[in-house]
Amino acid sequence: MISIPAEIKGTTIQSRLDFIERRFGEEARGRAIREMEAAAGNITTGLILPMSWYPLRYDDALCSFIAKEWGLSGESAFEELGRHSANEHQKFFSSLLNHSRTIPDILSLVPKIHESYSRNLGEMIFESTGDTGAILRIDGHGEIYRSICASNVSYIQETCRLITGRRIDAREPACVARGDTHCEYAFRWGP
After folding, report:
1. Which residue has the higher pLDDT, 109 or 168?
2. Dist CA 46 CA 7 (whole Å)
């Protein structure tokens, strides 16, 4: 069977591949695609649609590839990739969330965005922990990887910073990929 390169429509996959090419070169992009195929099967010969359609193994394979190429620990690379993707998608989310000017406003909308992905990502719930904190809790994941959670937390953190211009701290007290029963993203910011 002849393999025809995929037309990639998924913004996260595309931004990861663009990052690889800019940072490590065109040859590295080809190696990353081959590793992605090895991790998730040779389905990159058609059309890779947005995240709601492709296996998360694709993103995990790319994140792991980038961490190796970069020479960073997985967690550091995943967090940096989350910030990078937030910057890449800033225009889209700024227009989508333009009426949300505070960090709690933005965080309270994240579960609606999460819900829009038609896959088994679990239910996300927003909980305010006062004027300077909030938690996003996710129950019922079907498929999860440390690369996804670590990059998601920094993606949300950076998106909030880009839109509001305010510093926000983030951490993960719980993660299914680390053996917990649910995922939890905790955010804190100043008054």
Report:
1. 168
2. 6
Q: What is the 3-state secondary structure (H, E, C) of the chain?
A: CCCCCCEECCHHHHHHHHHHHHHHCHHHHHHHHHHHHHHHCCCCCCEECCCCCCCHHHHHHHHHHHHHHHCCCHHHHHHHHHHHHHHHCHHHHHHHCCCCCCHHHHHHHHHHHHHCCCCCCCEEEEEECCCCEEEEEEECCCCCCHHHHHHHHHHHHHHHHHHHCCCEEEEEEECHHHCCCCEEEEEEECC
Q: What pLDDT does 41 receive?
A: 64
**Per-residue pLDDT at 11:** 67
Residues 122 and 139: beta-carbon distance below 8 Å = yes
**Beta-carbon contacts of residue 130 (< 8 Å; ≥ 6 apart):** none
- Among the listed residues 156, 160, 164, the one whose alpha carbon sits nearest the alpha carbon of residue 114: 156
How far is the C-alpha of 159 from the C-alpha of 110, rounded, in Å?
Answer: 11
Write down the pTM of the prediction.
0.80
